[in-house]
Amino acid sequence: MIDIAKNIATTPRRTKASVIRELLKTTNQPGIISFAGGLPSPDHFPYDFVADAVKEIMAKKGKVALQYGPTDGLPELKEEFIKFLKRYEGVDAKPEELIITTSSQQALDMVGRLFLDASDPVIVEKPSYMGALQVFRSYGAEFIGVKLEDDGISTEELEERLAWLQAQDEHYKFIYLVPDFQNPSGVTLSEVKRKKIIELSEKYNVAVIEDSPYRQIRFEGKAPKMLYRLDQESKKTHNIISLFTFSKTFAPGLRLGVILGHPQIIKKMEILKQSLDLCTSSLNQLIAAEFLRTGFFDKHIEVIKQDYKLKKDTMVGALEKYMPEGVTWTNPEGGLFLWVRLPETMSADDMFQDALKENVAYVIGSAFHSDGSGKNTMRLNFSYASPTQIDEGVKRLASAVKKRMVGAR
């Protein structure tokens, strides 16, 4: 057999296994309550709707559903998604500004392929979405981390970094943000900061990747405008590229994502996608189009929001009840995650095995930091487990924290 280490190309050599995927191998064991995955609740998957939709699609559009489709996506889904953007986000879009992807993870990969050369600086939040860090690292990105505050990325530090990069004549390409219920922190970027980011995008001629996987899962507060909409209203930059997915608002098994951007960018991405998979599943696109067209999305998202709010409140209540003094956490207004911070002297990395002994699991916070910092942090998912499991799981986690605190004295 050939020497794999010697013969494989640079990109796969840079690609490391996802920490979450590796953790799930350990945590998906009987008896363990897992807060590790980013899994939507399967209790609310629209099984009957999908079954009925497939039956109708096969009767009316079977030849389209089972055939290859256009690389940029079926017109049926594009049309419905354009209506969705207008209704929910006040965004005007045209078919040539959209490309349908095989999940938002493929969208992230296409962003990396399109923009990144080895050693290019990429500005990310600290912490940031692990899946994006993994993709961009595989293309040789050098990360510039900017601290995350209670209302999103620090725009002061962001401008300092951009000014420094510009002065160094560095080939920085984009800022990557998860503005709504950020993964992993649950923090939402304020509208004031969003407007500032639009200004910085124009001033420093830098693209902004707006990753928006669960913006519609807001169960508290008022939503700030999307970066894409603010950019559209400014009529200046056209520098925002927005990524969407149906994984959290419909079903991850469909593997459907959408990229919204300037037609020139979308055209380049279409060429890239031709070399990746030719096209995304036509059947799955037609199912998603029906999901939007029939108004089932509106009913479905309300059910999800009610359930996830209950679960989030349960988790926050359990943290307040069981966690010792010195432990803090975020209280998100939507999404699937919250962020726990241990005292600076403690390591969630080291405590992970202790938690497993208590039959509870989480994701270590350092995995979301581009520089490996944040060892005293962890991400907890509240969407998957039941309220009873959440209460018991947090109780077990608090036990591990308390034992670690006692041992450190």
Question: What can you see in these coordinates?
Answer:
There is one protein chain. The protein has 15 helices and 14 strands. With 409 residues, it is an alpha/beta fold. The longest helix has 27 residues, at 296-322. The model has no long low-confidence stretch (mean pLDDT 94). The strands form 3 sheets. It has an 8-stranded mixed sheet, with helices on both faces. It has a 4-stranded antiparallel sheet with strand order 10-11-14-13. Helix content is 47%, strand content 14%. Helix 9 (191-203) links the parallel strand 6 and strand 7 (207-211).
Q: Would you kindly provide a brief summary of this structure?
A:
With 409 residues, this protein is of the alpha/beta class.
Number of domains: 2
What would the average pLDDT be, to the nearest integer?
94
Radius of gyration: 21 Å
* Architecture per CATH nomenclature, i.e. the level-2 architecture of the largest domain: 3-Layer(aba) Sandwich
Give the SSE string.
HHHEHHEHEHEEHEHEHEEHHHEEHEEEH
Helix content: 40-55%
Unreliably modeled segments = none
CATH class of the largest domain: Alpha Beta
CATH superfamily of the largest domain: Type I PLP-dependent aspartate aminotransferase-like (Major domain)
CATH topology name of the largest domain, in short, is: Aspartate Aminotransferase, domain 2
* Range of strand content: 5-15%
End-to-end Cα distance, whole Å, is 53 Å
Structural class: alpha/beta
| Envelope shape | globular
Major sheet description: 8 strands, mixed
Count of alpha/pi helices: 15
Strand order of the largest sheet: 2-9-8-7-6-3-4-5
Number of strands: 14
